[in-house]
Amino acid sequence: MSSTDRRTDYRVTFLVLCVGVSSFSLLQSMVNPVLPTIEAALDTDQATVTWVLTAYLLSASVFTPIIGRIGDKVGKERMLVAALTALTIGSLMAALAPSIGVLIAARAVQGIGGGVLPLTFGIIRDEFPREKVAGAVGTSAALLAVGGGVGLVVAGPLVNALSYHWLFWVPMVMTALAAIAAAVWVPESPERTPGRINVGSALLLSAWLVALLLGVSQGASWGWSSGRVLALFVAAAVLLPVWVVAETRSDAPLIDMRMMRIPTVWTVNLVALLFGMGMYSMFAFLPQFLQTPEFTGYGFGVTVTVSGLLLLPQTAATFLAGVFSGRLAARFGSKAVLVAGAALTSLGTLGLTVAHDHLWQVVVETTVLGLAFGLAFAAMSNLVVDAVPQTQTGVASGMNANIRTVGGALGGAVLASVVTSGARPDGLPVEAGYTHGFGVLVVTSALAALVALFVPVIRARTHRIVDEEQGEAVPVHPVAAPAAAPAAQPAGAHRA
């Protein structure tokens, strides 16, 4: 029996999707706390070992929207299996890597799995009952942040008990099982976007993203005024508008610029950029802050394992907020949930800026941040999914996830520069570096909340236009409305 002849219970599909998203999100953060361990084990230096993170970031940024778009065209279920297979192969390569070069290559292969995110949102929209879509998107979106927190928690104990290789063996098993389950139980997509894949657009998108993110991620080590970094920024500044013009004129664009100009889409993407700066920076720098020796006068001197455990309440709060975000969105609207999430982020980062002398203060403040992350991630995903045609769900949510990643790279680079701007004689940052860094994130999260106030609310209906070339009616995006009613999801042909 073919997969098109059967419709798996949406709850089984959701379980498979959650395993895939969780595996990808674990791989985003598990490696961060143990880079010094990997550096020593593979006999390399700090500048080289950072490419373990950079290669993953670049690969995920390039492939997330591309795989989302391919899924819209050839089938989301097929591409979900392909993305999970890439994660499995990359994890196997990393677990067995005999050298730093092989490990870096393995991380680039893992980054292809970033397509799991937009494919997950698209499958949920295609397969779930309309009233279940917001909650399912919210939960799966929150799992991305939850996985990031869990990765920080389990990395230390896993490495101490076994070895750093198990940071890749565990996700490998999860993604392999998820790939098999997806092939067996996830139905083929009922929605397809006709046309070819625009290879030229994909190359241009890859080029400007790599130039921008490589310059940002390597600016601190290469020097912000170095010729290499400046050349990368100039290349990104030139290639980005070239890509936009090429997409606008293309008969088969990779990213539909009309979709990107939808008011809800571009405002939510701007929120995602600002929000990503805060969230990913917190994942990177909070463990360092907690592990700073006590003799500095501000650090707590905890181990990698303890610092992860201290962030466990944040992870739990993120998950709970994601689970309940659907109900909140149904009652108050996704826009209100997004504003609340961004405002809570401002509150949490403000708390870290002015009160970080005791561990209980940090735990309370990071728990508030966890609630904020869960609410905002869920709301952003729901708003984007609701705002675009069903045939563009994958690429739209892929770009939103990608823009969060770009924001994270920018925020991490900015925070690194601020935190390390005034170093002690022993090389450790001074307290003011962290204080000023947290203050920067207060500003970015406040700006995110401000932009969120201007996100248009979506009417619970779509318009239809006549495609001049094909002479048939095709759905286009919902239009903005001043009404404050919560966003609703158009029913798919194969929903319950």
UniProtKB/TrEMBL annotation:
Indicate the segments forming the Major facilitator superfamily (MFS) profile domain, all copies: 13-463
The molecular function GO annotations come to: transmembrane transporter activity
Listed transmembrane segments: 12-31, 51-68, 80-98, 104-124, 136-160, 166-185, 197-217, 229-246, 266-286, 298-324, 336-356, 368-389, 401-422, 434-455
Chloroplast as a keyword of this entry, yes or no, is no
- Listed PROSITE patterns: MFS
- What subcellular compartments does it reside in? Cell membrane
Organism, per UniProt? Answer: Nocardioides luti
Mind listing the UniProt keywords for this protein, alphabetically? Answer: Cell membrane, Membrane, Transmembrane, Transmembrane helix, Transport
Q: Which residues form the signal peptide?
A: none
Question: Could you confirm whether the keyword Transmembrane appears in this record?
Answer: yes
In terms of Pfam families, this protein maps to: MFS_1
According to its record, how does it sit in the membrane? Multi-pass membrane protein
From the Swiss-Prot or TrEMBL record, give the protein name.
Answer: MFS transporter
Under the heading Gene3D superfamilies, the entry gives:
MFS general substrate transporter like domains (1.20.1250.20), Multidrug resistance protein D (1.20.1720.10)
SUPFAM superfamilies per UniProt: MFS general substrate transporter (SSF103473)
What's a GO cellular component annotated to this UniProt protein? plasma membrane
